[in-house]
Design a protein that fits this description.
Blueprint lengths: L18 E6 L5 E7 L2 H8 L8 H9 L2 E6 L3 H15 L6 E4 L5 E4 L8 E4 L8 E3 L5 H11 L10 H10 L4 H4 L13 H15 L3 H17 L3 H19 L11 E8 L3 E10 L2 E11 L6 H21 L11 H8 L4 E3 L7 H12 L4 E3 L4 H24 L3 H16 L7 E10 L2 E11 L2 E2 L5 E4 L11 H22 L5 E5 L5 E5 L4 E2 L21 E5 L2 H13 L6 E6 L4 E3 L14 H28 L13 H11 L2 H6 L2 H5 L6 H16 L23 E2 L2
Helix pairs in contact: 3-12, 4-9, 8-9, 10-11, 10-12, 14-17, 15-16
Keywords: Cytoplasm, DNA damage, DNA excision, DNA repair, Excision nuclease, SOS response
Subcellular location: Cytoplasm
GO biological process, one term: nucleotide-excision repair
């Protein structure tokens, strides 16, 4: 626990200007980002007597080791830079907005040659137009099924599309006229793209145009007594009307608005938003917020708008296909991400600043206000009731979850006699089949939860490049590689390099080389802010195994001179926790939350290692003798096998015969002959018995995933 006085900037050093500041811990990792109208006044609040600070603020300033800031010209610039830094660093003490579910979207892949309509979840992709989010995927499918009568856009996967083209006949949807069958050339790429754009226009709310167009065509068909065509058009109009009716009109004036509601307490809150476009509810979304910093509802609303519209505008800027007349990025952001009205339960601390920022994103004026009366007030109340139900459901599902995680970390800290709770845990596991295709996994848990973006896999090389001789050698190699990379990246980055200093009492201390002071406001590779992949260490390293694996990991850390990282191993048979240099294990109660967390970490590392091993083994078992021929790629390998029919016939062919294959030359043909002649000369010996890394026979009686 650090004393904030040790890194407090000198008096007068902090400017009295708008800006953004960030606190870093002893490893240089950004743990909090904030903005201020006056940096001097705001930062002074953090360095007052600890007893006068909020408990969460106390925890933040005592976890930090330095503070730095960037001066900006206006408060709007500060808002934008704060959002960029929060997205770049993912600070631990900033408010976390976590979706209470993965919402499905209706997506149209406009960037494809033949756009596809499909249901998508997760991160948005460039070149794809999104509608939603929707509460249920079945609601999207019902809407699409109705609209395919009028807009028969492709909905099949790439594999089905390719197979239909090869066979020369469309799938079932093509026969029942719910697909225009571009796979077999029934419609040109340009016409199909225009059909997809009409589909998007209808979903965006421009419904009257298409209904009017179909009605006119129906009347024309009736006038010439083409009653079958008129009946089909009548049914198409009915399908459009039913699809439109699924989104009832809630605001009669055709308003485009996002209506937010917030319900919570001092620890967490539930947030709901209704996306209203053209007076109809087009989507609904919710978040659960853990208040890891001391914020008011007004500040929470400001952070929420930052997260929602900053992310949405970024995603929408990458969408569309401008070569086919898509709107410019600013216009797309205006029509998709930021509506004309943003209705909130309470105004942010500086409404003018937030309004200016949103107006800049949209490209036209945005009105941020609290609804006071009428339909909008009633709809806001409906959104608030949804937020209440979401919070009740969240608490029911995850009752005691935060307390449980804290208890687990505290139990591990006490059992292993750690100075602080292990907020970052890394676990390593080795997976192999009789010494072949050796893979290792590294999984990361932060605050008791998996952080999958920082998972890593290692292909175990061994001293000769053929793998390690056993699990302990593999563990030594993996730990060495991980922490050697940590030392290298720490020394290369001035932001996280550790240097020896002297504290006020004259004692030597290891502390971050980052000192408090001004920094650049850019977010880029040179000041990426987020440490490189291995640039800061964990609080605890867990290895899957007993004393031999723990000893190997301890030896690797000692050889690198690292003595500030705790180490333990979890043996699977009796679930014993082993620490280096101890003759007896640490025994945790079977019902303890600490043991349960260690088991989850170990099992996740085991799963991740097996997945990587199977993937590598699958690739290795499909290797062809042609893969190692210089200058021979997959396309030409397929051409040779297609031409000769088998490797046996190819081996019997001459250089001239191979060179006659389209795409082959004499030099490559000679290389193929040489590569295929080598095993033939020795009579193609049988595969050797499985061996370890140094050529030693594999241990007897060992099968399956050793060391997993």
């Amino acid at each position: 626990m650090a004393d904030p006085a040790t890194y407090r900037p000198a008096p007068g050093q902090i400017p009295d200007s708008p800006g953004v500041y960030r606190f870093r811990d002893e490893h240089g990792r950004v743990i909090y980002v904030g903005k201020a109208i006056s940096l001097r006044s705001r930062l002074a609040n953090y360095f007052q007597d600890l007893s006068s600070l909020h408990p969460r603020t106390q925890s933040m300033v005592t976890s930090a080791a330095s503070v730095e800031w960037t001066v900006v010209g206006t408060e709007v610039e500060a808002l934008a830079l704060e959002y960029s830094w929060i997205k770049e660093y993912d600070p631990r003490f900033n408010v976390k907005y976590r979706d209470d579910k993965s919402y499905p979207y209706l997506a149209v892949t406009l960037a494809d040659a033949f756009p596809r309509v499909q249901v998508m979840r997760g991160a948005k992709r460039p070149g794809t137009r999104y509608f939603g989010p929707y509460a249920h995927a079945w609601a999207i499918r019902e809407t699409v099924d109705l609209l395919l009568r009028v807009f028969p856009v492709r909905t099949c996967s790439a594999g089905v599309f390719k197979r239909a083209g090869q066979q020369g006949r469309p799938c079932l949807l093509g026969y029942i006229e719910k697909c225009s069958a571009p796979c077999v050339g029934r419609i040109s790429p340009d016409d199909h793209h225009a059909l997809a754009e009409d589909f998007c226009a209808f979903m965006a709310g421009d419904t009257a145009k298409f209904t009017k167009r179909l009605t006119q065509r129906m009347r024309e068909a009736a006038e010439i007594q083409d009653y079958e065509q008129a009946a089909r058009l009548r049914d198409d109009i009915g399908a459009l009307e039913r699809a439109t009716e699924k989104n009832a009109v809630v605001l009669q004036d055709g308003t485009d608005a996002d209506i937010f509601a917030l319900v919570g307490d001092d620890l967490e809150a539930a947030i709901q938003v209704f996306h209203v476009r053209d007076g109809r509810i087009r989507g609904q979304r919710g978040w659960i917020v853990e208040k890891v910093e001391d914020v008011t509802d007004a500040e929470l609303v400001e952070h929420l708008l930052q997260q929602v519209y900053g992310a949405e505008a970024t995603e929408f800027r990458g969408t569309g296909s401008r070569s086919r007349g898509e709107p410019a990025p600013a216009v797309r952001a205006a029509t998709g991400a930021v509506p004309r009205e943003v209705l909130v339960p309470v105004l942010p601390p500086d409404p003018a600043q937030v309004t200016a920022w949103l107006t800049g994103l949209r490209g036209s004026h945005v009105d941020v206000r609290v609804p006071q009366r009428g339909d909008k007030r009633e709809l806001a109340e409906t959104v608030r009731r949804n937020a209440e139900h979401a919070l009740v459901l969240h608490r029911t599902r995850r009752a005691g979850d935060l307390t449980t995680r804290s208890q687990a970390l505290r139990e591990i800290q006490e059992a292993l006699d750690l100075p602080t709770a292990p907020l970052r845990i890394e676990c390593y596991d080795i997976s192999t089949t009789q010494g072949t295709y050796q893979m290792a996994s590294m999984v990361v848990f932060e605050d008791g939860l998996p952080r999958k973006s920082e998972y890593r896999t290692f292909a175990v090389r061994g001293p000769d490049g053929d793998g390690a001789r056993d699990d302990t050698a593999a563990m030594y190699e993996v730990i060495t590689r991980r922490f050697r990379r940590y030392l290298a990246e720490r020394s290369q980055s001035g932001e996280v390099e550790l240097e020896t200093g002297t504290d006020e009492d004259g004692r030597d201390a290891e502390r971050a080389g980052v000192v408090s002071g001004p920094v650049s406001g850019e977010v880029g590779p040179e000041v990426s802010g987020r440490p490189a992949r291995f640039a800061y260490p964990p609080n605890l390293v867990v290895v899957d195994g007993g004393p031999p694996q723990v000893a190997a990991a301890a030896r690797a850390l000692a050889d690198l001179g690292i003595d500030d990282v705790a180490l333990s191993g979890l043996a699977k048979r009796l679930e014993e926790v082993w620490v280096p240099g101890e003759d007896y294990p640490v025994i945790l109660e079977r019902s303890s939350e600490g043991l349960y967390l260690l088991q989850r970490v170990r099992d996740e590392a085991h799963r991740f290692a097996i997945t990587a091993h199977r993937k590598r083994r699958g690739k290795g078992m499909t290797v062809s003798v042609l893969d190692d021929v210089p200058g021979l790629g997959p396309a030409r390998s397929r051409s040779l096998l297609t031409h000769f029919g088998s490797v046996k016939r190819l081996r019997a062919a001459s250089v001239e015969e191979i060179a006659s294959v389209p795409g082959m030359g004499e030099r490559t043909a000679a290389a193929v002959v040489a590569a295929l002649a080598a095993p033939a000369a020795t009579g193609a010996p049988a595969p050797p018995a499985p061996t370890g890394a140094a050529g030693a026979p594999a241990p007897t009686g060992t099968t399956g995933m050793l060391g997993s």
